[in-house]
Amino acid sequence: MRRLLPIISLVACAGEPLETTPAAREVPDQLDDGRGDRDADGVLDRDDACLDSVFVSPRHPTAVRGCSVSDLMADPWPLWTAPRAAIDSLAADLDDAPSLEPARASLDRALIAGDQALDDIGRGDNCGASQRFGDATGALRDALGGVTAEIDARARHAGEVAVAGRIEDDIHAEGAELAGWRLRGTQLEQLAATLERIGGDYERLCREVRPRGSIRGEVAAYDGASRVMTLTDGTTLAVHDLESVPAIVLGSDVTVQLVEVGGGLRSGAIVVESPGLINEQVLIQKSKCLQLAFVPNQAPVGNAGLVLHDPAGYADHGYGYWLEQGMRLSATDSECDQGGIGTNDYFSYRLKLKYWKNGVGWKTKTLALDVSSATTPIKLPADMSTILPGTLTAERYHTSCTWNGTPLPSTCTQPKLVTTDTYPLYVLPRNYYCAIDYSKVLFTLEDDDLTGHQTTMMNGATLHFANPDPNTTQTILATGHPIINGAPSPGLQTIHQYEQFAIRNYDFFPIWPSQGLPNPHWTGVDQPSGVMWPHIKSWRNGAPFRYSCRVPELTRDGIADCGGEPHCLYRLPFDAMHTTHVTQGNFGSYTHQGSQAYAYDFGSPSGTSIHAARGGVVVQVVSDVTVNCTGWIDKTNCPFAGNFVAIRHHDGTVALYAHMITNTPAVWVGNEVHRGDYLGLVGNTGNSTGPHLHMHVLNTSTLWSIPIRFELIMQGTGAVEVCQNPGKNWYPTSTNNLW
Q1: For the purposes of burial, counting CB atoms within 10 Å of the CB of 719, is it exposed (0-12), middle (13-18) or buried (19 or more)?
Q2: pTM value?
Q3: Which candidate, 661, 627, 658, places its Cα nearest to that of 644?
Q4: What are 208-232's pLDDT values in tens digits?
Q5: How many Å from the N-terminal Cα to the C-terminal Cα in the chain?
Q6: Confidence at residue 247, expressed as pLDDT on a 0 to 100 scale
Q7: Is the separation of the CB atoms in 433 and 476 below 8 Å?
């Protein structure tokens, strides 16, 4: 069995806190610069969805990296988290479009089917899960059909407006909205493909994962949190379904229904019977003194000191206990005054949680059967509502043993329920309770520079619902690269409030896909931050608490701070020293109105090279348009933007570069693009009155263009200016560079 790091004992036998000094109540943080493989499954922790995976086999991978069949049967939520969030977001986008009500209903069906698939997996019904994911895939394709019909309808509407003679005022607005809807269509296609792949994985598991008889043996060890049980003959099994399992007692005779994967890998077991007593062959591993403990969000066990807190530090009397997603449950024990309890008496917890599962209703789940201080900390369910409170029930069991003067007990009684404690739990999203302020949030690092740095500091933090005790201090800490003698520390160190630290483009939350997948479980942050594990520590009700903190939104590819104006994030979309003619600027009288109000038309000769004004990832490319439809009366089928490239920036906005020459876009969907990279050639395709580059930046939530500002060389003076909004008939020169 894996054992926790040593901890300082904080409890008495009856479960009441001992009188201790503040310094004795929390283990100091320990730091490690590695990115290890804590569960030895071949998947680095930063990319591992199941950090405590059980029986991962390279021969039988699942749809989620680092998760075994046993993991996903016990807790399948990592499989569904990202697709569900994306479907939720798309569904919200359709709320205000009456014509898309059927598509919205299809997305709701997909969500329900996915939730049901997870329940099937939890029951070991991989065949049912395969069918449910198939239903969800079909529902997404139905929604895609609705969105495609909406795209066609908007194109027809543009044609009707053209016939009415108003097309020149609306052409770019229609094009922008169509581009946005096409992006949503692409998202739906990708989601449907993802669920189809997951459904295929479970169809395979439906064929391969099946019962393979049963065995009977004696329990030698059991970890109730990671669900690993070892029999005295050395057989190691994972327990899938805790709801149907009676108390597992060390030394009990158990009958186990085996489950095999493919070629004989024992991936797990379901205990169907648990009679008997512990005999003289088994060493007792129970706790003599036991109290529930909360484990705050922190670096994975093994890379940082384990922090176990008295629940009193999280209690707000009259409301409940305030926790956050990612926290865990554990238990502490110690040698203490027995208070009338015999030296041969031992205790353990069974933990149950009643909570609201979004879209399903109230659910009761057994989190662990047999919790002692040797038990791996237990995760709270990932699908627990952050709106309605849950109720944690901690049942304390007592076992009494007879020793007869030998090192091992001869007999022990069956566990007997002695106390039941309930804890109303408010579990809100990670980083909800604490917000940190930085002294600076805009940085002028070029987006391809992974070695340069700038600096900022943590000025302070705002707490919500924490209610620290009066006259107690609040300590703000993080892990990162503090500035030492003018340079960032080479290794990770603790960063304190008002201490300068480095901001680099390479961060603990990657901005480029090639830098790896962001993993908040490893870093403690869910956006670019410059630090790992930002958190605040203080005291409440005489006991410590600790919450993770969110950091402000950072801009790491700026050129200048334009004060009250939009930040200067862009260079002109051409090669350095190219001079262009602004034929239409913001709120132009010709077409730049409505959703296209903040667009620019840059007149340049056909064949002029186009370069990225800002870095990002390519999300859409059209290169096969051969027509110019400016003079068309019926523009129903007009490809408004012609050939174009769409690039998503680090902040989620999308830049559109339109009207390129046929087959000249030089990038593909998924390519990483840095500022200055070559994109294609200026052309005259689509609804274009002459060779020019149309450019605007979209807020993808509203599909409306947003204000942007440029760095450029001013005509006449030759001076480099920032924060410029070039207007009609300007002739600015580009400062952009090839990298």
Answers
A1: exposed
A2: 0.76
A3: 658
A4: 666 666 777 777 777 766 677 777 7
A5: 53
A6: 57
A7: no
